[in-house]
Design goal:
Chain B: Keywords: Nucleus. The complex is a heterodimer. Chain A contains six helices and 19 strands. Chain A is an alpha+beta fold. The longest helix of chain B is centred in the first third of the chain and has 17 residues. Chain B has two domains: about 150 residues, Proliferating Cell Nuclear Antigen; about 120 residues, Proliferating Cell Nuclear Antigen. Classes of the chains: A alpha+beta, B alpha+beta.
Chain lengths: ~290, ~290
């Protein structure tokens, strides 16, 4: 950051607001990752809306993106994932998520380390990127932050008798979704203790229907926990927003209950075995007919 | 008016093909100026609305061509000037790139008059399946520029610059500039005689500063007096250019070079120079823009 300051003094950088703010002495948030790859693909996976909200605490870093009031994605990174993680209080702020993603990909395929710093309200989010294969190059990005927009709180009742949970292998589930009818409007998820166990039906405008059934004995399924049958419909476009996360996930958890709220967890595993989670909440479509 | 040249070395043929491929990425038409000692190519689409910058390549005929014979239309003329489609030339030479499947023995270039003037590219190729070489012939139609029109086809001169730095991380630079074009329409190059180059992209949402340090200093304007020596050591110059133009140049490059020379003429232009061999050099000029 010292570096940008020098350039500002020389008049090369014009926007003073993008420099670190001198009214703050200490950083509210300092975190460092040695390898950017998993973080970048996770950010890309939730990059479907304009703004993302970052919330840091002792428990880790949360990055939340919402679209309307019906879909929410949260990237959760535990402190253990970071090579360095220091947080003072519980800072939270919003940034343009695509700008963040763009900054993370500045060096393309070259692996780099990243340090993120944030001083406090009104200060920009600073990213320091250093490629591993070239120590002569370094980048400082400062991204404008705005006041946080409180994300919606969704929750499934863990004690509900209708809570159904399935753990699946990521690549398998990704293949299933890949083969579904792309032109469909709605997807219907059926989870049942009896056959067909787990069924996805696509419903199109032309009344075309197709379905995929996965038996609980299938190799794709790691865990199948279901007591009551749940059926709910979701907008196909919203399910599709989970695509990027699904493509890189190693494991996926699907949870839902009688209310139909769908919770999906995608586990992103990096080479050094540490894990990052992306969680999606998708609200169901209302039942239109009274059957 | 006669011209014929022959290449024998596989490496040189590949480089020549890479040069033609680079030109084809930049513009529709290219100008070929054939001199006694040198062959030049110019692409210039500045007058069009495209974002390609002016690029020219000078090739020492002795470097690439063991046989090189040029006879101008009239004995008092020094050149033959031709205009041709860059894409056609690149396609005609594509056979030289061939990897392990077949090997190219030689490649001849010949100026011919069939129904129209053309440059004939004749490659002698040996396939692994047969011992007999075969000839691959492409006739690239050309327009011969009469001497009266030569003033509009003059080879550009390298502008004088205050500072020239050698940047060894061309691959990083390319992906960086490609991403920066999504951030800001203009890009500032700021170089110093201490061997540092800063690339600055600023927008409403973000400021991105990339520093390349410990660069080789190729040239600083020679100081006239001892007092100026100190000033020269502390010299800093900057110039802002169109990010799309810079990106178009870097994305077009098909050569395997890892180092590029960046010259900065204060608030006038950026001169890019790629030394393919000692007598084979590619140049480009990015004009300054006002911020």
């Amino acid at each position: 950051m010292q570096h940008s300051k020098l350039l500002y003094e020389k008049g090369i950088i014009k926007n003073r607001r993008m420099l670190t703010q001198s009214q703050y002495e200490n950083y509210k948030l300092v975190c460092r990752l040695e390898h950017i790859k998993t973080f970048y693909s996770s950010i890309k996976a939730i990059c479907f809306s304009d703004f993302g909200t970052l919330q840091a605490s002792e428990d880790g870093l949360l990055i939340t993106v919402e679209q309307g009031k019906s879909i929410q994605a949260t990237l959760f990174i535990a402190p253990a994932f970071f090579a360095e993680f220091k947080v003072d209080g519980a800072p939270s702020f919003s940034v343009k998520i695509n700008v963040l993603a763009e900054c993370l990909s500045l060096f393309g395929l070259s692996d780099c380390s990243i340090k993120m710093l944030y001083k406090g309200e009104g200060a920009p989010l600073l990213l320091l990127l250093e490629p591993h294969d070239d120590d002569q190059v370094s980048t400082e990005c400062s991204i404008k932050t705005t006041n946080v927009e409180e994300p919606m709180e969704y929750e499934l009742d863990l004690n509900s008798s209708s809570l159904n949970t399935i753990f699946m292998r990521g690549p398998d589930l990704s293949n299933i979704f890949h083969e579904l009818d792309k032109a469909a409007d709605e997807y219907e998820f059926t989870i049942s203790p009896l056959k067909p166990h787990f069924k996805i039906t696509t419903l199109g405008v032309m009344q075309a229907e197709s379905s995929v059934e996965v038996a609980k004995s299938s190799d794709m399924i790691i865990l199948f926990n279901c007591r009551e049958t749940t059926v709910a419909r979701y907008k196909c476009q919203q399910i599709k927003l989970t695509n990027k996360a699904m493509q890189v996930a190693t494991k996926v958890a699907i949870k839902t209950d009688a209310s139909g709220l769908l919770e999906m967890h995608f586990m992103m595993q990096s080479d050094d075995q540490e894990e990052m989670y992306v969680r999606f909440f998708i609200t169901p479509l209302l039942e239109l007919d009274g059957n | 008016m006669k011209f014929r040249a022959k290449m024998l070395d596989v490496l040189y043929m590949r480089e020549f093909q890479a040069i033609a491929a680079t030109l084809a990425k930049l513009a529709k038409d290219c100008v070929m100026i054939l001199g006694q000692e040198r062959m030049h190519f110019i692409v210039n689409e500045e007058h069009c609305s495209t974002s390609s910058p002016l690029v020219w390549v000078s090739i020492g005929s002795k470097d690439y061509f063991p046989e090189y014979k040029m006879t101008p239309a009239r004995p008092d003329e020094d050149f033959i000037v031709l205009v041709m489609s860059a894409m056609h030339l690149s396609r005609a030479l594509a056979v030289l790139r061939s990897g392990t499947s077949s090997s190219v023995h030689s490649c001849k270039l010949k100026l011919k008059q069939i129904q129209f003037p053309c440059i004939s590219v004749i490659a002698t190729v040996v396939s692994p399946s047969s011992a007999e070489p075969r000839e691959v012939v492409h006739d690239v139609p050309v327009t011969v520029v009469p001497a009266s029109d030569w003033p509009s086809f003059v080879l550009p001169k390298v502008p004088s610059t205050q500072l020239v730095l050698g940047v060894p991380s061309l691959r990083l630079l390319r992906s960086l500039i490609d991403k920066l074009k999504n951030i800001s329409p203009s890009l500032i190059f700021h170089g110093s005689a201490t061997g540092e180059l800063n690339l600055v992209a600023e927008s409403e949402m973000a400021t991105i500063t990339t520093r390349f340090s410990r660069l080789l200093l190729h040239k600083v304007n020679q100081p006239q007096s001892p007092s100026a020596t100190a000033a020269a050591a502390a010299l800093e110059v900057s110039c802002s250019v169109d990010t799309r133009k810079a990106s178009a140049f870097f994305n077009a490059l098909q050569l395997p070079n890892e180092e590029i020379m960046i010259g900065i003429d204060k608030e006038r232009c950026i001169c890019l120079q790629l030394d393919i061999r000692s007598q084979v050099v590619l140049h480009s000029i990015l004009p300054a823009v006002c911020i």
